[in-house]
Amino acid sequence: METREIRLARRPHGEPVADDFELASRELGEPGEGELLVRNRFMSVDPYMRGRMNDVKSYVPPFELGKALQGGAVGEVVETGELVVHDRGWREHALVQADKVRPAPLPHGISPSALLGALGMPGMTAWVGVTDIAPVREGETVFISAAAGAVGSVAGQIAKARGCRVVGSAGGPAKAEYVRDVLGFDACFDYRAIEPREALREIARDGVDVYFDNVGGVQLEAAIGALNRGGRIALCGAVSQYNATEPAPGPRNLALLVGKRGTMRGFIVSDHADREGEFRGEVGGLIADGRLTLAETVVEGGLEAAPGAFIDMLRGKHLGKVVIAL
Amino acid sequence: METREIRLARRPHGEPVADDFELASRELGEPGEGELLVRNRFMSVDPYMRGRMNDVKSYVPPFELGKALQGGAVGEVVETGELVVHDRGWREHALVQADKVRPAPLPHGISPSALLGALGMPGMTAWVGVTDIAPVREGETVFISAAAGAVGSVAGQIAKARGCRVVGSAGGPAKAEYVRDVLGFDACFDYRAIEPREALREIARDGVDVYFDNVGGVQLEAAIGALNRGGRIALCGAVSQYNATEPAPGPRNLALLVGKRGTMRGFIVSDHADREGEFRGEVGGLIADGRLTLAETVVEGGLEAAPGAFIDMLRGKHLGKVVIAL
Predict the structure, then answer these.
(1) pLDDT single digits (tens) A186-213
(2) Is A281 an 8 Å CB contact of chain B?
(3) Architecture per CATH, A121-270
(4) Which end of chain B has less Cβ packing within 10 Å, N or C?
(5) Rounded to whole angstroms, how far apart are CA atoms B92 and B303?
């Protein structure tokens, strides 16, 4: 059968542009031994994919030029209709090894797209961050950057459900309002309108006990400055730097971590697969109880809309987890 | 009785100079209820004291202008001749609360000055760092900056005794040689002669598992670059920045900690007083067995030599722990 996929046409320099991607058709053979033919229904665009577009060694290998991109997707097994999660996104149909797909248990009435967001990799990243990497405790103040994003929106709502005071930052007044009014954070500032350092002085007067860092840069510096004794910082990503062509200056106040007895810890969610059951239990429960709002932008327009959605996501144009409906 | 002390005459701006200090005489009354009169025999100068000379809130309160400085000292209780460790250094005699002095058990044949170095606060800082903050494991590569210093010299020798490969850095060829030949590190580079990043590429080809940071700055950046997956960094101090009048740029590669799953943790030894017994057991044993060399510079010349020794220590002029013989 004939199917379509998005390929990496060239490696982006700085911010990706449309011409870095190519929509192509290909012939898909019959499923081989142990393979499943899957028709994708939703595919994910995630910030970490920008890193894989560079030709550098990292914790995942770079994407290959001229080949289809990869990423999380939810699809139906054509033969059985069963819904599965797998990593052959950026294409309409995929042949996937049966042992590489994960079944997709969904709370009643929730869209399968949540399996790429709050109930998928971004949600589990959030959960691992506030549970194992920078554990949050009842009554503590937790600061979360990119709070309107796929990971931050979930991290903040989990911390809130655990009895923390949760403050966030987001790009632009509409997102900040969304984080406060819809996601229920105690406060949220627009980092484009106010210096993060100043904002934290106002909305986290008693300091910050945990910072969930999704952006790096000046917000990380501000969080170190506001950190309380024994504070913890989970380093989840540095979206402010993914498109950078020059190394960004680091926080000038890092030495404060000595006197503050601060801990800063980087992590990758795939190391923590053994925690999936507990994650599903807590976050699935919060969703079922209506205590966790799914922050999600579903982009219509099929596969051809994916490169634009990816570029827009890196620019911070969307709210919450960005998925493409195929 | 009449005694002499060193006072803070004014707050240093940048590097301290002699005029920031004042040698003064004062009348010392009789010991009150619960007080001991102690004649100091050795006093300590430590890098952290530079921070206390600034008028800023930190983990210890700033020194007061016109008042005697404070710091670790070993002295004899005049009445009993007992050797005690206490925190009223920078003076010839001190009245000390009896419950504020610590007895000073010494392995046979070791100078009491060791109670301010390998068997004192710097040694315990080293031990806590490689034991609790950034635990070193047999077979790992451990990088230690300021390796010829009071803390670094002990940290490296403990790691070596535990079966690690230990590499260091020091300022100048003589110190680097001392670290290799006398302290027994596997390698040591002179950070003034070779770029730390380049040096680590040569002497730590398989990367760095643990970095014990005493300096911050470019060496911290180099260590992050060389860090292996799951690597740990103990932030102990940033002597390269103690005299800084402007904030120093942070490591530009901090975001690497995400993919490397790196941990960076600041600490202050006084939080870990419950570990003193275990520290004394291990480090005292290594000293008694001749497996840990005491890196120490004893400055003669009495109290008046202390300000100069402190200034020289911050400039990196001395080897090992700097103590003043009174």
Answers:
(1) 999 999 999 999 999 999 999 999 999 9
(2) no
(3) 3-Layer(aba) Sandwich (3.40)
(4) N
(5) 7
